[in-house]
From TrEMBL:
GO terms for molecular function: hydrolase activity, acting on carbon-nitrogen (but not peptide) bonds. This is Amidohydrolase-related domain-containing protein. Residues 54-376 form the Amidohydrolase-related domain.
Length: 404
């Protein structure tokens, strides 16, 4: 299908994006064909008049999950037991619904961290084969080096077991590996796992919550750090020597802070995350943005709130965070030549909104159109969690009032 999106006000996703008014975006099948002035002859295209609405590249979520809806559990730890998912078909349907919700909220590319990889891979493949409309998905397998309550996360405790699992992941066409590590894990096994994952052409995301675990991840070749820890000069040096990037994720930490019996833990994690990102920013270490969707208090449609948290904690402009969630996030994935900005030749991943997100980020919460690889979704409708939305609105007021 060839579309001509006329009367578009373009925010192109680049670092210095400014509104480009009265433009036409031409798409041809899955790609952007050209960006032209409003005098261009659109004969041969299906014309859609945007009436001067704002058009941005699709959003990119670097850290997402698809196993739950993000409801606050009022202090009770989430149970990963199989009873939460009565059947494989039910789990698959939920995963499809959550992926679709991401798309309807403007996320056209996402990195899924791997809690339920069998469903995620099926959904990824259905999207790629155009059996369903959804975001471009990079899917992981999640692996730990110590027993966890989630039986869907593989645990490896020796080299032979690790090699067997990596061969299995490659056979399943896992896109990348997510490692959960803590201070007591075997560093030699961590090193071997990262080396062998790279040998199997898989990048490695490492989730850490301490300075020691962060050092282990950086010293042994992690491709990305999820969350992070307090950083010393040696951490900084290692970041600068490696092509490793940091993924900042505040929404789940805010979710903890909102619950009375987890408030102190949430507060400490927020402070740690802020410190980590401030250090990265001060030393030109690459930082991407993810939402942590599915975790408590984190829905599949609120990426704009994650941007608002970044703006709040780091005194950034709307322009800064919009760049981070588009072209900058694409660069962290090595996909900046095909997604992340509105340019001829890139995938036609576009979102359209009536209000200007450079003035108010909440403009991203109400979209008129979403286009993913040239497939147009008109007037997406998301059933939002009213009680949670009100609590999150109050939470932002609390952050501002308490100068957290």
């Amino acid at each position: 299908m060839k579309y001509a999106l006329i009367n578009a006000t373009i925010l192109d996703g680049t670092r210095d994006m400014r509104p480009q008014r009265n433009m036409i975006i031409l798409t041809n099948d899955e790609r952007i064909e050209a960006i032209v002035p409003d005098t261009y002859d659109t004969k041969g295209y299906l014309v859609i008049d945007l009436h001067h609405a704002y058009v941005m590249p699709g959003l990119i979520d670097l850290h997402a999950h698809l196993y739950d809806g993000g409801t606050l559990k009022k202090g009770k730890a989430f149970s990963f037991a199989k009873k939460v998912f009565p059947s494989d078909s039910y789990r698959l349907k939920r995963t499809e619904n959550y992926a679709r919700m991401h798309l309807e909220s403007g996320v056209t590319t996402m990195r899924v961290m791997g809690n339920s990889e069998s469903c995620e891979l099926l959904v990824r493949d259905k999207i790629q084969s155009q059996m369903m409309l959804g975001p471009r998905m990079l899917c992981a397998k999640m692996l730990a080096f110590h027993p966890l309550i989630d039986e869907r996360i593989d645990v490896v405790q020796n080299y032979s077991d690790m090699m067997k699992k990596l061969r299995s992941y490659r056979h399943k066409k896992i896109d990348f590996l997510t490692l959960l590590i803590d201070d007591l894990d075997n560093e030699e096994l961590i090193r071997s796992t990262i080396v062998e994952a790279h040998n199997h052409h898989m990048s490695v995301a490492v989730q850490v919550h301490s300075s020691y675990a962060l050092a282990m991840a950086l010293n042994n070749g992690a491709d990305s750090i999820e969350y992070g820890g307090a950083m010393s000069k040696s951490h900084i040096n290692r970041f600068q020597m490696n092509p490793t990037f940091e993924v900042a994720i505040f929404s789940p930490l805010i979710g903890k802070y909102m619950q009375e019996d987890l408030k102190d833990e949430g507060y400490e994690l927020i402070k740690q995350m802020v410190s980590c990102i401030e250090t990265c920013n001060a030393h030109r270490i690459e930082v991407g943005i993810g939402t942590g969707s599915s975790l408590e208090g984190v829905t599949h449609y609120n990426m704009w709130r994650e941007l608002a948290y970044h703006k709040h904690f780091f005194d950034l402009t709307n322009q800064d965070v919009l760049y981070m969630v588009t072209l900058n996030n694409a660069k962290q994935l090595g996909l900046e030549y095909v997604i992340g900005s509105i340019e001829a030749g890139k995938y036609a991943d576009l979102i359209v909104m009536e209000e200007n997100p450079l003035e108010d980020l909440s403009a991203l919460s109400s979209l008129s159109f979403v286009m993913k690889s040239g497939h147009l979704l008109r007037h997406p409708k998301i059933e939002k969690k009213k009680e949670l939305e009100e609590a999150l609105d109050q939470m932002m007021d609390t952050l501002n009032a308490n100068n957290l």
